[in-house]
Protein 1
Amino acid sequence: MDIPYKIYLNEEEMPKAWYNIKADMKEQHDPFLHPATGKPCTKEDLLPVFCEELIDQELNTTDRFIEIPEEIRNFYRMFRPSPVVRAYCLEKALDTPARIFYKFEGANTSGSHKLNSAAAQVYYAKKQGITHLTTETGAGQWGTALSMACAYFDVDLTVYMVKGSALQKPYRKSIMETYGAKVISSPSDTTEVGRKILEENPDTSGSLGCAISEAIETSVKTENCRYVLGSVLDHVLMHQSVIGLEAKIALDKYGVYPDVVIGCAGGGSNLGGLISAYMADKLQGKKAPKFIAVEPLSCPSLSRGKYAYDFGDTGQITPLIKMYTLGAGFMPAPNYAGGLRYHGMSPVISKLYHDGFIDEVRAEEQRRVFDAATLFARVEGTLPAPESAHAIRVAIDEALACKETGEAKDILFGLTGTGYFDMTAYASYHEGTMSDYIPSDEELEASFAKLPKVE
Amino acid sequence: MDIPYKIYLNEEEMPKAWYNIKADMKEQHDPFLHPATGKPCTKEDLLPVFCEELIDQELNTTDRFIEIPEEIRNFYRMFRPSPVVRAYCLEKALDTPARIFYKFEGANTSGSHKLNSAAAQVYYAKKQGITHLTTETGAGQWGTALSMACAYFDVDLTVYMVKGSALQKPYRKSIMETYGAKVISSPSDTTEVGRKILEENPDTSGSLGCAISEAIETSVKTENCRYVLGSVLDHVLMHQSVIGLEAKIALDKYGVYPDVVIGCAGGGSNLGGLISAYMADKLQGKKAPKFIAVEPLSCPSLSRGKYAYDFGDTGQITPLIKMYTLGAGFMPAPNYAGGLRYHGMSPVISKLYHDGFIDEVRAEEQRRVFDAATLFARVEGTLPAPESAHAIRVAIDEALACKETGEAKDILFGLTGTGYFDMTAYASYHEGTMSDYIPSDEELEASFAKLPKVE
C-alpha cells in the first residue's frame, strides 16, 4: 500500500483517552518536595496554586488511560487530528535510503502542540469555577495556545512573557491580545519577585524561570485564580500523549514501526507526548525504537545538567523537583529557540533518561539547526519553528548516516510548530549575523553550587 | 450521517484536472488588446512576457478540464487536500439556524490559496527552460507562495513588493528570502517605470499596479526570464478551481448543497476558484447557490468601478483588459487587506458579474471586517487574514439574517488565508487606531476620465 504524503486520521479514530506513562514505569520519579519543610508535597499543598483535577492527574501513577472529556475532544476537533507526514521531498533531497516521517503539530493558530494541554487545563479550570488564570510564556507558543483556550472557554488570562522573547517577537503580544489575554513583559514591576530581579539585574532579558515566579505570585494574590504551566509537569506530558498515540495509529495503518524517534526537549512535554505510545512498548519490555532528545548547546540541561532536586523557577517559590537542571539561577544566553531555554527538564523525561529508557541526547549548535530548518522549508514547504528545527537537524543527520551505511531506517520526528513568528531569527541566519553561546564548565559549576541542599 | 468538524478528502480524491470555466460560458469576455495597436493580442504578442503553456491555458475557451501534471499534483500533496470546515463554534456563538462551512486554504507556509497557482506556474516555466521569474506581491502571500514554488523547482525569483505592505510586514520579506527569493520594495530605482513613479510621487506607498509594471519591465530585460502573476488572469483562476472542486466533493459526501457561496475579491482568483464547481451548475442552467463577492470600501472595483478596457498596471505597459476597474491610476488608500488593493478585477469575474451570474457584491468597512475577524478567531481558533475576513464578515451577516428569518441556510465561504503576518493590523484594531477611507465620487470620476480610449 502506497504511503500518502499526509496520513490523516478520521475524527472517530482520534484518541478518547490520554496515556499516563507513569502507570507503566516500574520506578516513579522522586516526589515534589515542599520548599519550606523539605517534605513531599501533598495534594493540599498544591491546591492554592493549581486546579484540583490537574493535581489529581499529576499525582496519578496507577491509571494507564484517563478519559478525555467530550468538551476537550470537541475543542481538539478544531485542530486535530494532526497529520503524520511522509517527508518524500526531504528524503529525495538527502538521497537517503531512510524513510522520514514527521508528526506535524503546527497547523493551528498557536503554531504548536501547546494547544493540546491548553485546551485541557482551561477546561478543568472552568469546571472548577476558576475565573482567572496566570501563566508564563517564552517563545510565545504556550501563551498563544492558552489565550486561544481561554477565549474558547471564556476565562480571563494574564501572561508573563520573557522580555527577550517579547522584544524579538512583538507580534506574539498582539496575537495573544487578539484572543483577549493581558500580556506583561517579565521581569516586571507588577510582582515582588519581578521587582527584586530587576533591582539585582536591571538589564536582564528575563527567563522562563523568572516569568514562572511572577505568574505564580500573581495567581496566589488574585481572587479565584490559578496558575497553569505549559510543560515540565506530568499532567502536561500526559495531555501531549495524543501526539504519540495518533502517530502510532497512523503509522500502524501502513505497517511502519519507527527505528528512531526524535524530539526536541525544552521542558519536555512535546518529547514526552511524541514518544509516549512507543515508550509504552519499551517499558513493557517489547521491541522499541531508539529515542533521541535534542536540545540547544546554549541550554544543555539534559546533556550537561545535574540530576538533582531544584526549584522550577528563578524566584525559588515552586516545590523542589528532581530533574536534570542547570540550576534555577542559570540564565541561558539569548537564542532563537525560546521554547528550549529552560534550566530544568520534565521529571518524567529526566527519570526516563536517567534510567536509560531515552537512549541518547544531542545538543546542537544554533547555525547548524538553522541550516536544517532552511533546507527543510525549501524542500518540504513548511517553515519550522526554531525549536522543532532541533529535531529536524538530528533527523537529517540520522538520514545522512543511513546514506553512509545503506540502512533503510524508518525515522519519526516531531515537527512541533511553525516559524511564522520567528522571522527575526531567520533574518539573522540569512544575513549571517547569527551566533551561539556555549556555557563554560566554570559557569555551570558556579550554578550547580547554588542548587538547594536536600537531605 | 454526522458532519465532522473538518472534512478531508483522501489524496486519491483530489482533482486530477482543473476546471476551465470559460468552456461553459456562452459568451466569452472581450479579448486583451495590444496597447500599441488596439488589436486583440495574439499568442505571439504574449510570448515575450509569459510562459507558453500558461498562454495556451489563458486563451483556451473550449476544454472543460485540463489535466494537472503529476509533478504539480505531487507538489499539491504537500499542502492539499485542504479541509472544508464546519464552523460549529461560530454557529453556536451566533445562535443561528444556518449551517456555516468554510474551505480553508491557509494551512501552508505561504498562508493562502496562492500556492495552488504558484506550483503550476513555476512548473510550466521550468518545463520551458526558464531560469528566472519576476512577479509582484501586495500582501505578500503571492510572493511567499511563489518563493516556495521556485525553491521547490529550483528557479530564480525576483519579487517586487508594494512598499506600503513591505513596511507593514517586514517579516514577509524575511520569509521570501528564506525560500531564496530576491525582494525589492516597489516603486524602486531598479526600473525605468519605478524611477518615473518615484519622481512624480516620491512619498508613494506604491500599489500592485506599480509593482506589476516593474516586474514586467525587469522580466523583459532579463535573460531567459518570464513574468508571472498571482491573480486576475484566466489561467490563474483555472488553477484555483481546485478549491471549488474539492469543496464540492467534500460537501457532496454529506449531502450538502450550499444556498450561498461567499468569497473575497481582490484580483478575483480565490473567488473564481471557490465558486467554480457551483458556477458550472449555474452556467448549465441548473439550480445553483447565490454568489456573493466581497471587497473593501476603500477599493471598490466591482461595486463602484466601470466595466471598461483598462491597463492592468500603473505603468501602462500591459495589454488592455476589459474588466471592472477604478482606473489604472487609482491609488487606493492604505488598508490592511493588501491582497484586495487592486484597481481592476479578473476579466472572467467581471464578465460573470456583468452578465448576472454573480448575484451580489458587497463593499465592507475595515473595522466591521476586523470585528468579524476577531470574533471568528476567538470562537473558531484560526486567525484569519484580513482579506479572508471580508468573506467572514458577510458570512456572519448572512447567518444573522437567518436568525431573524428562521431560515436554515447552508453558507459556504472561502477562508483564503491566515493572519500571522498581519499582526500590525490586528494591533491597530485592538488599540482602536484603525480607520478607513472611502474614495469620493469626484475622485473616482477623475480616475475614470483617464481610462484609455478604445474604439
Protein 2
Amino acid sequence: MIYLTRRERFNAAHRLFLQEWSDEKNLEVFGKCSNPNWHGHNYELFVTVKGEINPKIGFVINLKHLSKIVRELIIEKVDHKNLNIDVPFMLGKITSAENIAISFWEELEPEINKLNCELHCIKIFETENNYIEYFGK
Amino acid sequence: MIYLTRRERFNAAHRLFLQEWSDEKNLEVFGKCSNPNWHGHNYELFVTVKGEINPKIGFVINLKHLSKIVRELIIEKVDHKNLNIDVPFMLGKITSAENIAISFWEELEPEINKLNCELHCIKIFETENNYIEYFGK
Amino acid sequence: MIYLTRRERFNAAHRLFLQEWSDEKNLEVFGKCSNPNWHGHNYELFVTVKGEINPKIGFVINLKHLSKIVRELIIEKVDHKNLNIDVPFMLGKITSAENIAISFWEELEPEINKLNCELHCIKIFETENNYIEYFGK
Amino acid sequence: MIYLTRRERFNAAHRLFLQEWSDEKNLEVFGKCSNPNWHGHNYELFVTVKGEINPKIGFVINLKHLSKIVRELIIEKVDHKNLNIDVPFMLGKITSAENIAISFWEELEPEINKLNCELHCIKIFETENNYIEYFGK
Amino acid sequence: MIYLTRRERFNAAHRLFLQEWSDEKNLEVFGKCSNPNWHGHNYELFVTVKGEINPKIGFVINLKHLSKIVRELIIEKVDHKNLNIDVPFMLGKITSAENIAISFWEELEPEINKLNCELHCIKIFETENNYIEYFGK
Amino acid sequence: MIYLTRRERFNAAHRLFLQEWSDEKNLEVFGKCSNPNWHGHNYELFVTVKGEINPKIGFVINLKHLSKIVRELIIEKVDHKNLNIDVPFMLGKITSAENIAISFWEELEPEINKLNCELHCIKIFETENNYIEYFGK
C-alpha cells in the first residue's frame, strides 16, 4: 500500500456566521472571522489517496489524473470565489475549515474511487498556523 | 547602515474592479480577481527599515517597536477585513498589491521616521508566486 | 472525527548532558549538543487534537482557544528561556526533543480534554531537518 | 512510543519509461516524465523511525546515527546521479517515486532495525506539490 | 516605480562539463555536478520587472501576462528537459546557474520590454541553499 | 556582474544585555531577550558575493569554495555554541543580529576577496519574522 499526496491551492473569501444570530453574537462566537464584509485566505489543499502499485508502470495512479480531478471538482469551483455564496456544495453550511474538508471529501470520493485507489485524507491549511485533517469518518 | 526587516501577516478579502465598468469589462481586464462576490488572500507583509546602529545597545531599533507600529497602523486595520470596504486608507482605490504597497508606505513612513531609522521597502506577497516591492519613489 | 492542528513557536536555549558524567563522556554521547555553555533553537510545536464537529457552529473547537491554552501552559514558560534551568516541568530531565514532547503532552492533556476534543499528537521541530512526534503512549 | 524523523535531500536525474515501448507510447502513459534525454529533481527524503526512549539518555536513538545510515546507504548512491543508470538498487525498475520509496525502505530497514528502533515511514517529495509515503506493507 | 516578481518552477536534468576535458579533469573542476549520466534539479525562477503604475487600473502590468510570457519563452522549453541537449538557447553553453540566468534574461528582455515595464532581475534557485541573481549588466 | 548566494545554518544560544546594567534595566531595554539564563535560535545565514563569470567554466566562483570558507570561518565557531561566551570574535559585543552580521562580514571579507569575487551582503534570519542585512558600509 502506497500513499500519494497532491497539493493544490486556492484563494477565496468567506465569513463564519449564523444568519439567525446578531452581529454581536456572531462576533462573540466566531471572533473576527465573522466580519460582515468577509475576509479571505490562500488555502492549501492536500489530497492523499492510497492504493497498490501497478507493477507494469510503477504507479498507483498518475498524479496528473488526480490533479485534474481535484482541479475540476474543487479548485475551479472555489478559486477566486466566495465560499459562502459562490460554491454550490457549500451553500447553507458554515464555511469552517472543518466543513470545507468534509465537503471536499464528499465531492472527491466518488470520482477518486473510480481510479485504482481510495481517498485517504483531505488536509486544509487556512493559515500557516492552522490546519484540518479529515479521513472520511 | 543596517537593514532590518519585520514580517507580519494578514488575511483579507478584496476585489479588483472599476465601478464604472460592467462585470464583463472588469472580467476582461482583471480576470477572476474581479469576481463580484470577492475572494481573499493570506497576505505576507515585509517592512524593511534602514539606519545606523546605536553602539551602546547594538540595535538600530528594537524590532518589537517596529512590529508594534506595523500592527497598530496596518494589521489591525486590514486583518480579517475587506480591503475595498473596511479600510479607510484604501477607500476609492483599486486594491491591487501595487496600491496596497503604496498605501502602506504612506501610513507607515511618518511614524517610522520618528524612530532612529528610515523606511526602506514595503514588500507584499499576495500568493507564494507573486510579490510586489515599493521603495517610496 | 476531525483532526485540528495549531502551530506555535518558541526560542530557547538548552544542553544535553548527564550531571554525573564528565564533559568528555557527555561529548562522546551527546556530541556538540552537550556544549557546556548551552546552544539554542527556534522550536516549532504542532499540537493536534481530534473530535467531532459541533454541527451548530461547524467547529470541533475554536482554534483560538487551543492556541490560548498552548500559549499559557507551554509557550509562556519556555519562550526565550533555558529549558534546563528555567522551566519547572523540565527540571531534572534531559532536554531532548523526545522528553520535551512527552512533557508538553503531560502539561497539555488535562486542559485540552476539558474541551470538546482529545489531544492526539505533539510534534516538535528542533531544526528543519529533525522532528519528533508523540501520540501519548 | 516516540516517532523520530530525519530529512535528507538529493538531486538526481531520471526518466519514466518502459524499454519495450515506443517513445510515443511512453509519452502517452508517462507524459513529459518520459523525455528521452532525462529530467531531474531536488528530492526531499523524510525517514521516520519509532521506538522507546532510553530513559538514561532521553533518546530513542541519536538522530546523527540515523542520518549517517541514510547518507551512507542512500544519499551517497543517489545524489547527483541518474536514478535509472547509476544506482545499483534501482536497476531494471521504473524510477517512479513509488518505486524509489519502496527501494529505499528495502535498503534501510535491515540497518535501522539493528538500532533501538523500527523503520516506520519513507516519505519522498518529488516536487513541492507531490509526495509519496510508504509504511513497509 | 514598483517592482513585481513572479515565481515559476521547472524540473530539468543537466551536467557541468567541458567536452574537451577528461572525466577526471571535469570531476576535479565541477565535482559531482559533472557526473557523466546527468543529475537534475527542481529549479525555482523569480522574474522581477519594474515600472510605473497605470493609475486607471492600479497595475504596472497584469502578472498573468508576465507569467504567460515566462511560460512560453522559458518554462515550456526547459521543464522536464535536459538543459545541455534539449534547449536551443543553451546549446554549447555550460549549464551553470549563472549561464542559465543570463540566457533567460536574453530570451525574456525583448518581450518584456514590449509591456509597460522593464526587466529588472532574474533569480534562480538551484537548491534551497544556492541561488544566483542577474540584473542585466 | 552576477550575484551568488549561499545559505548556511547554525544553532546557538545568546543573551542581549549590558553587564553594567541591572537585570531590571536590561529587561526594560532588551525585553525577554535579556533572560539571564540565555535563550537561543536556529539562525539562517545568507552570504551573497558578486563577480564576473569566468567564461571558460561558466562560474563566478564554485559555491562549494564559498560554502567551505563560510563553514570554516563562521559556522564551526558559532554552531551549537553560546554567542556571548564561546565565540572569540563576538567577545565584548552585544550579540544582536546587527552586530552578528557586521562581525561575520569582518571575518569573511578578507578571505572572500581572495577569490574571483567581492562580498556583497550578509543576511541573517533570527526567526522566520526577523532578518538583518549588512552591505559592508
